[in-house]
Known about the structure:
four-stranded antiparallel beta sheet, 281 residues, 3 helices, mainly beta, eight-stranded mixed beta sheet
Amino acid sequence: MLHFRLAHVFWLVLGLVLASGCAKAPQARNVASPTVGELAPPARTSRIHESAQSQDSVVAWGDEEVAPRGLGTEYGEPVQSWVTHVPFERDADVPEVVLSLHYNDTAGVRELARYVGDHRSARAKVSSEPGSLVVAIVDARGRMLDATDVDGTRYAIGENGQRYRISIENRGPIRYEVVASVDGLDVLTGDEAEFSRRGYIIEPYSSMMLDGWRTSEATVAAFRFGTVADSYAARRDMSRNIGVIGVAFFPEYGATNFSELERRHSSRPFGQGYAPPPPPR
Length: 281
C-alpha cells in the first residue's frame, strides 16, 4: 500500500456542537484556514419549513413533463459547530473502509421494493465487517431512522422537511480520518466528493455527529430532507448522485495493528485435543 506523509498539514477537529448536543470530534481540512462563507449557499434561500407544501418543479423527459420524485438533502438553517486544527497523516491514499446508506421517502422505498421484489425491514445503520466502524442516520434528537433492505442495499426512510444527522462510531483502538459525502457532494467543501479531500478525525473508542454542510469554523448548514428540486446538489447542477450518503475511513499512519498483536499473543506451540481417526480409504 502506498504511503504518503504530510509534514505540517493541519486539519480541523470537530469541537463543540451546541443546540444538537453532539459529541466532540475532530475535522480535517487543507492547510489554509476556512473563512466564513467558504461554502457558498445556493442561489436562493432554502425553503426548509415550506418544502412540504411547495410545488415540485418539472423537467422535460421525452414528450412529457415529469416532476422529480423522492427526497434529496437541502442546504438548511445555520447550526453552531466549532472546529480547530490538529495534525494527522494518512496511512494510505485509499480508504480502509467505505460505508454507505441510501435514502428516500416511504413511497419511494415501497415503490422500489415492489419493483425489485426482495426487501426486508431494517434500521438505518451499516458497519464494517468486524463491527468496529459504524455509520447511522438519525433524526434531530438522535433517534435512528427506520430503513429497508432492498436487494442488498439499505435505504433509510425520511420525511420531507425532516432534519437528520450522520452518526459515526469508532469502536476500535486507532484514529481515523473520516471523509463524508451527501448526494455525491463533500460535506466540507460542497464540491464533488473524492477520496483525496480532507475530512474529520475520529478518536479511538468515540463517536461523532455530522450535522450539515460546513460553512465556517463555527457553523454548518443543517442536513434536511427536501424535494429533489430543492436539494443542494440539484441547485448546484450536480444532481447525479442524489439519495446516497457515504463515509470513507482512512487509518492514521503508523497506527498499531492490535488485531495482529492479539493473534500473535494468543498463538500456541501445540494444538489441543486428542488424536482423530484416520480418513477413510
